[in-house]
């Protein structure tokens, strides 16, 4: 029995727009971010998807994105689990800083290393490997069992928490996953085999 896993990065946030490191800080969506989330829901409805359960982080930008999607697919009453295991990577001392200001403070090369290395964390924060260390167990114990029962599961989360998941699903190396960009508000649809391997993957771009 093949189940379906849909991953969606939240729509553009106010801090994405301002080029700030966000992490566990909690800015809302921009007007464009709301539109991206609504559009994601319309695309999923056009595919005829109906969800059995949804997961999101404890951050409002992901929750608002999920809410827009559920409104568009006419499932506003769907059981939804919120957990900080799905939160964005914690950027520590970088959180709230403009990326250009961070480069001026620590140097372009050092900031690039923090942003684009797999296992080097910024001061007081998490590396992508650290993020995966909380995302993977949560996925394996809480999310994947629903998919393997043949259910259709929606996860609305963040660029790096979803990167950590995609790394495992697609069998990518740390170097390969940090080079991947995840567009805001673009659903990724996985069909999983009964042994949890990926049967197919579709990116629902506009």
TrEMBL record:
Single annotated GO MF: phosphoglycerate mutase activity
Keyword Isomerase: yes
Pathway of action: Carbohydrate degradation; glycolysis; pyruvate from D-glyceraldehyde 3-phosphate: step 3/5
Highest taxon above the source species: Bacteria
Top class in the EC scheme: isomerase
Biological process, per Gene Ontology: gluconeogenesis; glycolytic process
SMART domains per UniProt: PGAM
Site, Transition state stabilizer: residue positions: 158
Family from the record: Belongs to the phosphoglycerate mutase family. BPG-dependent PGAM subfamily.
Protein name: 2,3-bisphosphoglycerate-dependent phosphoglycerate mutase
Species whose genome carries this gene: Phyllobacterium zundukense
Lineage: Bacteria, Pseudomonadati, Pseudomonadota, Alphaproteobacteria, Hyphomicrobiales
């Amino acid at each position: 029995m093949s189940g379906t896993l849909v991953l969606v990065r939240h729509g553009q946030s106010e801090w994405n727009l301002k080029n700030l490191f966000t992490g566990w800080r909690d800015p809302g969506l921009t007007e464009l971010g709301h539109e991206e989330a609504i559009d994601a829901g319309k695309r999923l409805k056009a595919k005829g998807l109906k969800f059995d359960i949804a997961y999101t982080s404890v951050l409002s930008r992901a929750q608002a994105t999920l809410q827009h999607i559920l409104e568009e697919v006419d499932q506003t009453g769907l059981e939804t689990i919120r957990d900080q295991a799905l939160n964005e990577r914690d950027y520590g001392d970088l959180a709230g800083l403009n990326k250009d200001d961070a480069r001026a403070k620590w140097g372009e090369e050092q900031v690039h290393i923090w942003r684009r290395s797999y296992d080097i964390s910024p001061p007081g924060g998490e590396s992508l490997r650290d993020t995966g260390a909380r995302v993977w167990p949560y996925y394996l114990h809480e999310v994947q069992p629903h998919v393997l029962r043949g259910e259709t599961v929606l996860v609305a989360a963040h660029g790096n928490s979803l990167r950590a998941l995609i790394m495992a699903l697609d069998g990518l190396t740390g170097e390969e996953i940090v080079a991947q960009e995840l567009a805001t508000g673009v659903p990724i649809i996985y069909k999983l085999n009964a042994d949890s391997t990926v049967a197919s993957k579709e990116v629902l771009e506009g």
